[in-house]
Amino acid sequence: MDGGPRVPEQRRPGFPAEGKESGALRFGVLGPVRAWRGEETLTTGSPQQRALLAALLLREGRTATAAELIDALWGEEPPSQALAAVRTYASRLRKILDPGVLVSESGGYAVRGLAEGALDLARAQDLAAGAEKARAAGDLCHARDLLRRALALWDGEVLAGVPGPYAQTQRVRLDEWRLQLLEARLDMDLEQGCHAEAVSELTALTAAHPLRERLRELLMLALYRSGRQAEALAVYADTRRLLSDELGVDPRPGLQELQQRILQADPGLAEPSAPAAETAPAAVRPAQLPATVSDFTGRAAFVHELSDILSAASGEPTTGRVMAVSALAGIGGVGKTTLAVHVAHRARAAFPDGQLYVDLQGAGARPAEPEAVLGSFLRALGTADSAIPDSLEERAALYRSVLDGRRVLVLLDNARDAAQVRPLLPGTDGCAALVTARVRMVDLAGAHLVDLDVMSPEEALALFTKIVGEERVSSEREAALDVVGACGFLPLAIRIAASRLAARRTWTVSVLAAKLADERRRLDELQAGDQAVEATFELGYGQLEPAQARAFRLLGLADGPDISLAAAAAVLDLPVEGTEDLLESLVDTSLLESAAPGRYRFHDLVRLYARACAERDENPPSEREAALSRLLDFYLATAAGVYAIERPGDRLVDDLETTRYPGLRFTDGPAALDWLYTESSSLLACVRQAAGTARLRRAVDLLWASRDLAESGANSRQYEATALAMCDATQAVGDTRAEGRARIALTGFLLVSGRIQQAAEEAGLAMERASAAADPTAASWAAQDCGLIALHQHRYSEGKVFFDRAIEGFRAAGNGLCEATALCNLSRAYMGMGNTAKAIEFAENGLAVHVRVGSTMRLANGHYALGVALTTAGRHRDGLAQFSWALTIFVDHRQRLWAGTTHFRIAETHLAARRPGPAAQHAEQALALGCIGGDHMRGNVLKLLGQALGELGQVDRGKACWREALNLYEANGAPEAAAVRALLEPATAA
Hints:
By secondary structure, the protein is of the alpha/beta class. It has 45 helices and 16 strands. Strands 8-9-10-7-11 form a five-stranded parallel β-sheet, with helices on both faces. Helix 38 packs antiparallel against helix 39 (876-892). It is globular and about 115 Å long. The two termini are 52 Å apart. Residues 1-20, 273-286 and 317-321 have low confidence and may be disordered.
């Protein structure tokens, strides 16, 4: 990455600056030769004058003689007045530049005294050097970012329009360096797993530089890691044929080796190599601790982390020993004590002077008094009863004195808070303390805090298997996974469930899984002997203040995976500030988890316990329904606001169910979309939870108002499941209005995913329900959907009838945005009927209405529709301009599938204009993003990509794309399959 020419004399040492200070000179050579003073563009004169300036800027601050400059500008055939011309150019440049910048010296000239980062090439070199250092240090994210910034400094052709042999030499060298930087950045992209994103760029680069084998190698690897093995091998075949035809050589050994590794499905190619794991600390054992469990499982990272800290505390004095304190926090049953005891046993040899242990009873009603604990500790350390003082302060001081010079490990289990722990900590190096508690000891100075979460699924299954036995679990692995999943991967719950199964030889794992599947009975099932999950949670719940307990109960009612602070405030009907204080206090007790700043979640079993508490303790019982109603109101009001920002002029928000509780208000689109996508899982869970309740209509309207989640490709599966659930729920209660709207939401999703036949069935039902319920809003939307389905099925005349009906309904409602959308869709119907002029007219009309009503995101659909009409009419340049506008808007509004579809249309246009290189690049981007229309549309993209690659000479890879397209078409019974077969078997087709 450091192969570029250096210009150290022209900048001060340090990291590159942008050089945009007021009045500072800046120069650009990585594109046209340009100069700026601050933000003012300076005139650099004729091409020869720019050539002189470029030669001086690239001389690394050294003086260039007149002869060297003449040779740089004109080569072997200079004009008769070359020397005079050079002097004239230098004189003119002096007038433009700051005094003292262009200096005369020894009959020549030099550029001196520029500020740091004044030359774009210098900034690129510093960024590349920084990237190399970051990569060597293992910080690939930073290295990639630095290289992106370096590459972004190029602005077209280097030294564009500058004549002379020197400029041409530098142009070639800098172009080569840019390619090296690109290869380095793409290599890091692949190291970080960004293979799918890299394919598009590599496809374009290999088309532009077909003989550059390193790019071909990176493309093969990116395709292989993207699951496109056949295409990866086809790239090698194309490369071998090209090198043989053009140069008469074989691919270099590295490329040949990669081909063999792909053929052998070498596991080493699947993912970037991971660094070797650090050697685990040597196993050690303590002396006077509770027995460790024989089936201790997992937690390897925590064991190593805590063992390292204990090792630092027990090191030799010359190595800098410290008094180490580690505090483990987590919900009851997560395995804090088990882990602490296990780690303490491992550290036994490091603390030969003794190990102390106490259960501080912090979760109970009567926690242990520090004075009593210190008395027992002092006795265990050999202090006579008569020598033990009475006061806490004196006992703590004597305790620290007795430990001085000893190496002792203290395990303080089940602590209540930091105040209980502080007097019990050793005060000298060589000693260490392990603390377990349900609260985070954030106020325990110097403590290493460890938040213990539930087990991973693998660890949970391993623990279950150790207790139950390999033979019983291996034959019912899926049922065993269901059991540990129902236990929420909580170690205590897994132990109880496994112990029950181990004690009942007639039970199968499936029997236990079935018992735990019933959420209302699950906590009752998770008890064995004197162990019970519910009892563990009850200890923590019993210590809560009334406001904390209410918050715990009501928040547990919501079904989402987590909840935001604002949503929680709605549930509790409290101000956000007060809600945050309550939730953070619950986090400190480990009954609630902080999933991210401003977001909270329950462990699954804790949520079930919270709901049980709500049913038992929440008075009046109607408050439970009121809390969920406020949450739904909050989501609906906020989602309607997001919808209005994204679709100004769409009157749908005026026809949604009214809400009593307010939502959030946003002033800009990005923040609104951030909220929608962040809340998507919780929002859809709230919709599903309303089935069978009085909240059903509001829930359906929330689903409709959040249709961006389906159209953008975000949370597609959840959105489909929710829409299906709402269709069933509304049909079950006979609410035709809500059912029609639910089926419109489902139809929209099915259209996006390309399932046209199902969409047709749902749209027909939606039309019937909307008519029966006299819901004109839903009827107009259903007509629009029926028109889109007709277009997909090539029934263009019928589509026109539906669109006319939709336009009439939207106009009657004053819904300008939806009218504009229907006009654009009507354009496509005219196009299908062969009336291109009408298609362009209606697309232009639709776009004009979009502009009139102030559309934001939907304006992109107007540009897209007009682009399709124009390209169909053969106006490729005009069509590309419309697609470019559409793509920018779709990307800004995070409409991934629409952006991918627009890339496909751009690729189509480039291919029609006989530009296969850009066509292939945009087709790859369409594949990476996905498209509206699901697998059928993916087949269209692959077909087009195959054609573009064939025209680029990459025949084998093109055929691989066609074969994949054929598989997709055949799986969906698409008629396009015949055309692809003809492409693959031209002789047979003939």
